[in-house]
Amino acid sequence: MELLAQKFQPMLANDLAINDSEDGVEGRMDCVDSASNTTTYLHILRDIRELAGWTVSSPKVRSLFDLTAVHWTAVIIDTESGIPWSVDSWFRPNGHLPMVMPLPSWMDKKKAWEPPFERINSTPHSIHELCHTQPLGILGPAALSFQ
Question: Is the pTM of this model over 0.85?
Answer without folding.
Answer: no
